[in-house]
Amino acid sequence: MQTTLDISTHHLPQVTHARNPGMGLDLDWVASVHANTSAIERRAATIGARRSVKKDFQAAWLLKAISLIDLTTLSGDDTAGRVKRLCAKARQPVRADMLQALGLPGLKVGAVCVYHDMVATAVEALEGSGIPVAAVSTGFPAGLSPLHLRMQEIGESVRAGAREIDIVISRRHVLTQNWQALYDEMREMRAACGDAHVKAILATGELGTLRNVARASLICMMAGADFIKTSTGKESVNATLPVTLTMVRAIRDYEDRTGIKVGYKPAGGIAKAKDALTYMALMKEELGQPWLQPDLFRFGASSLLGDIERQLEHHLTGHYSASNRHAMG
Ligand SMILES: O=C[C@H](O)COP(=O)(O)O
Question: What Gene3D superfamilies does the record tag this protein with (predicted)?
Fold first, then answer.
């Protein structure tokens, strides 16, 4: 099956829906959540295989994908220099001549995502671009530092200019089914974020079952998460299609019951343009076109942009360049 895409407003950051205010913890709803793992895996296996984007539309989809990237560097050896280079890339993600040829000179990424220490550098480097800085706070990636320090870190990241905060949940609350503790913690973190949007990282590779993933997704949404995000990129298993189906269906259920749209961010290991197209086709099919806008969908990715750039160059010239010509930072 071929699929088409409206890219007319793809580069305009738009917020077309209200933030998720959250709701009280509804344990009956949580208890009723199930995930049929074998059905989900069967469905996931058909997505990449069956779904193809028509060749003529491929460049448009790839340009759209760029606008959905949280361009990320989360390494122990990050430096101000690397972050500044990444921000320059965020402002102009594809060579200017290529963007001209493709008819989208103003294309930008969705956000730049860094550790707290690099927020001020990124904010300065992105000044005037409209590109938000996302900070991974709360003792990323394990989230095991004392709660008051995790809250303090959120406050400091917001004061340093981060407009989005990617928090990590306490996996142990999920593994011990302590839903109240998970809800309370998420609620407190959301409050600490103030006007900054909060993405809840579930670290799905450490949650054991898809049912746990579904329940944790729901609780984070009940507690007011603006986005739910799969992974830190540091777990041994990061974003997968079965996890994605589980989480986007939780988003759909939440919207059905509350009318509130929550965003989705797969992260970790998404490095190839064709994988990005698969995720986008899944989003369009499961949740519809609104989830192909940066206010409701982001890729957390450090190297995806380089592969997309290579594919776009191939689209324009018929040749592939070496991947080292598309360095990120
Ligand atoms: O949230 C973003 C991830 O840490 C990026 O993971 P990646 O380096 O595998 O693309």
Answer: Aldolase class I (3.20.20.70)
